[in-house]
Amino acid sequence: MTPFGAAGTGSVQVPGSKSHTNRALLCAALAEGTSRLSGVLFADDTKAMLGAIKSLGVEVEENPSELTLEITGLGGRPRLNESVIDCRSSGTTSRFLLPVLATGHGPATLDGSQQLRSRPFAEQIAALRSLGCSLEETAAQGGLPIKIQADGLAGGEVEITADTSSQFVSGLLMAAPLCDEGLTLKLLGTPVSRPYIDMTIEVMRDFGIEVTNLDESTYVVPPSGYRATALEIEPDATAASYFFGAAVITQGKVRVDGLDERSIQGDIQFVSVLEDLGAKVTWGDRFIEVEGDHIGGGSFDLRHFSDTAQTLAAVAAFADSEVEITGIGFIRAKETNRLTAMTTELSKCGVEIIEKPDGLLVRPNKWLLRGATINTYDDHRMAMSMSLLGLRVPRMEVLDPDCVNKTFPEFFDRLEELRPRAQERSGVTSVIAIDGPAGSGKSTVAQRLAAELHLPHFDTGAMYRAVAVAAVRAGVDIEDADAVTKLARETNIEIHERILIDGVDATEDIRSADANQMVSVVAANTQVRQVLVPRQREWATSLGGGVMEGRDIGTEVFPDALLKVFLTADLSIRAERRFNESSEQTLESVLEDLKRRDQIDSTRQDSPLLVAPGAIIFDSSGLSIEDVVSDLATIFRGLVAG
């Protein structure tokens, strides 16, 4: 992936909700008459449901270009004729269909991919057996494939544990009207993803079925028949979460039409989480717009919208403080063990993340972020969530990106539509701002990048070093803030191929060990900064932009820079680089000196060393200067391309 290099902006068209589509497909398949569905999602999961209902004799007229379907339903219970129904990798298809097949007549086999076979069905199987259904697991107990010998269901009362998956409950609810006596469904334990149960009830009502909620854990569905209807499918709120996350991570602004606070999808609550983290949210009429700002921290219970947990974990990698995600222990039984998978993959990227019994704890440090090769575990949500890191971190590679076809085949195309272009950005300054800690290679990278792009190069760090050397030459105490400020104001510093201080060459002196020791003190002097920062701005502006490096270029000097970069590397690598530049110190003393400078630079009151908002975070550990320059040149050219 190639990072954006600036704020992602735009309006995104997300596909129809998978959850809404598959519920509507099944209800329409059971209904009397012809239903028309618009805004339908055409993806692997919904194609699995379409294939399943067609195998039961349902007539379907598809118009993918218009995102519509016309479905002539069965008008009641299905008749089974040794049907083998392949649910692919779709949990909703398999768990919705199993109870419906049990209400029918005849034999059938329900099966799916190896991934789906590994997912649990035990709670639903036990509930159906308690209602008198004949089921046989032909491989592992509590999983697919399952042979069904259906002879209708009398119905009555059934209990089911709802703390593993709401899909078990939704499947029983949709089958309930086809039972002779209807169904009273009692939930045991604390249900997860309750909004998905609410969505099921809402869709059933759209098709003429009344569901009574006696209390929080008891649902009553009388025997009845589904009636055909016309229904518009909502845009997928879970799919929208990735684009809202992109806005926050890049400090951009993204709008998704067709969603608002009235959505029947529980995952819309993710937007409120982003708002709590510091994002600016506009809740419109049939649209939601999210604008990124700082990313704070906090603890968030995602029990009822757990499909957004991976998105939040990716966003948390860029936060200013800890982010805890709770209530999601059950997602270990999703397409993959999502807690372990996110812990493994984010750790590769330098994120400190702890897997807990009920969730994740992310302790972000943006200095440590790095590119990595990401395994997706055949899980579409792993691919989509982890790709968000690639918006700001170079050298991110996502393996098996086609797994997004499960719910969002055009995901990467839609994400690319948010990529900024320089001509679309008002108020930007034609500066490439490169910040980072000592020893990260800023100066060398900046010089070579400027040469590669045929731009001027500005070494702002040399200004502060020159003031330090001038103080030594003048016998001024470096800790005397007023005296050093006076010196900075009065000294003539010329920075070209050679560095001149009042006409005297100081090119080698400013890179000495003494200068290394003193420069942090000078740079932390607020008064000196007030003298030098305007000179830096004037310097770059007079030449129409260029490449400028330092420790606050993207945050203070040019916060509106065209491209902002935070260049970093492992402390040990930075120490070795600095040691190789000079033999005046031992490697151990260089290491200690860098630790001290990192502490001073990152904690000083005036303009501390921080990752600039939206900056690319580039860990150069293990890379050559040529590699880094090549990547940054590619990103810059992408920004200024037509």
At CATH level 3, the topology of the largest domain is Rossmann fold
Q: Compute the gyration radius: what is it?
A: 30 Å
Query: Any guess at the CATH architecture of the largest domain?
Result: 3-Layer(aba) Sandwich
How many E-type strands? Answer: 30
Number of helices: 22
Instruction: Kindly report the spatial arrangement of strands forming the biggest sheet.
Output: 24-28-23-29-30
Low-confidence blocks of residues: none
Total individual domains: 3
Give the CA-CA distance, first to last residue: 20 Å
Description:
The chain is an alpha/beta fold and 642 residues long. Helix content is 38%, strand content 21%. The strands form eight sheets. The chain has a five-stranded parallel β-sheet, with helices on both faces.
